[in-house]
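Researcher:
Attend to token order:
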Amino acid sequence: MDHPESAYPEAPRLAVGAIVFHAGKVLLVKRGRPPAKGQWAIPGGTVKLGESLQEAAQREILEETGIAVKAQAPVHTVDTVVRDSTGRVQFHYVIIDLAADYLYGDPVAGDDADEACWVGPEQWPDLPINPPTAELLRQRYDFP
């Protein structure tokens, strides 16, 4: 059976996300691939061999959203483990979210994001926000 590169891994995959605020809004993407397909989440992706967490976050945010950022320190870590109907691990990511400063750019979806945009408190109730994203933004940033 053919699986995307990230499905049914032999080991957990290291990923980063970047929490970026600008003008009172947070940068989010609508995921285009499993495991969170269709949900709005913090943009990011996997770390490549030889990259620092900051380099990976800066690259991933630019690829996924067209936004240039300066990644800062890690602020949150989460394990994402998804099992299929047989109990086999289909996805396993260890995700390290970093704070990041907005530098420039306008959101344009790229890479594996279906959409990318700045989300303000007024739009929050209308979007299917990924639960770990919602919890992190509420607890750490009091957003929305």
Notes: The longest helix spans residues 53-65. The CA atoms of residues 3 and 90 lie 10 Å apart.
